[in-house]
Each structure stands twice: as structure tokens, then as C-alpha cells.
Specification:
Largest sheet: none
Strand content: under 5%
Distance between the termini: 103 Å
Keywords: Membrane, Transmembrane, Transmembrane helix
Helix content: over 70%
Number of helices: 7
Order of helices and strands: HHHHHHH
Length: about 160
């Protein structure tokens, strides 16, 4: 069993005014910064954003084909078709470059430094914009069909009122 002077030894070290090691504080600050930086790098990596872009263009393609099938979008709508086609080409080009750079860590770092992330984000915005445009066309067609049904089914004159 420790005696009283041995038990008070740790307290005497604290009272002596010796500086505590800065290592725990440095770790406490550096660790969250490193985790945040790693998360940001992962989020902004061209490889991850390219996968998101490919998934998004596939969703827009599905919406585009549904709109053509339902008649909300004419197959002869040149502007939408050209926009969709050019976006598909752009996504394909971005995906090809991303696949090539994924073979080397140095190439992936160069992609980030060259601003490929911004290029992908800009293309992703354009794809979302086209998808929204097509959705608006579909909704306006639905509203038009609904209003036609309501106008055809409503009686033109009410007897007794």
C-alpha cells in the first residue's frame, strides 16, 4: 500500500509548473483537420463525381425516354435531343478521362489540381438542368390532360339553380 508521500507525487508534478506535452493538443487539433481534409478530398474526387455524373445521366435518359413515350416530348424536339446528345458525349469523355487517371495516384492528383472537379460539377449541373426541363414538360402535359378531362366531364348547365 502506498504511503502518503508517494501518493502525492503526481500532484507535486502538476504543482511544479512544468509544461505539459503539446502532443495531445496537437493530435486533438490535427486529427479532426485531417479527417475533414480526407472527407473533402473524397467528396471532390473526380472518380466519385464521375460515378455520380454517370448515374445522373442514366436517370435523365430514363426520364427523357418516358417523356417521349408519354408524348410530353416529341421525338422531333431538336433542341432537347441535341442537348441530351451533347451531354451524353460530354459525360462519356469525362468518364473516359476519369478511368484513365484512376490507374495512377499521381494522375488522380493532377486531375484535382487541373480543375477536373469543377468541370465535372459544371456538367452535372447541366445534366440536372436538362432533367428538370424534361420534368417540367411532363408535368405541364399532365396538367393539360387533367384540365381537358375536367372540362369535358363538367356539365355546361345546371338545372334548378
Amino acid at each position: 500500500m502506498p504511503t502518503l508521500p508517494e501518493a502525492s507525487k503526481p500532484l507535486s508534478l502538476l504543482a511544479s509548473g512544468l509544461p505539459l506535452s503539446p502532443t495531445p493538443w496537437a493530435v486533438a487539433v490535427a486529427l479532426p483537420v485531417l479527417i475533414g481534409a480526407a472527407g473533402t478530398i473524397h467528396y471532390a474526387s473526380p472518380q466519385r463525381l464521375t460515378r455520380v455524373l454517370v448515374d445522373t445521366i442514366a436517370d435523365v435518359k430514363k426520364v427523357y425516354l418516358e417523356a417521349i413515350e408519354n408524348g410530353a416530348l416529341c421525338a422531333s424536339d431538336v433542341h432537347t435531343r441535341e442537348t441530351f446528345s451533347s451531354l451524353q458525349f460530354k459525360v462519356s469523355t469525362i468518364r473516359q478521362a476519369s478511368l484513365r487517371s484512376s490507374l495512377s495516384h499521381y494522375a488522380m492528383l493532377c486531375d484535382v489540381l487541373k480543375g477536373r472537379t469543377l468541370t465535372i460539377l459544371r456538367c452535372l449541373h447541366e445534366v440536372h438542368e436538362l432533367g428538370t426541363h424534361i420534368e417540367i414538360l411532363k408535368e405541364s402535359q399532365l396538367r393539360e390532360i387533367t384540365s381537358r378531362r375536367l372540362s369535358n366531364s363538367s356539365p355546361t348547365s345546371v338545372v334548378g339553380f
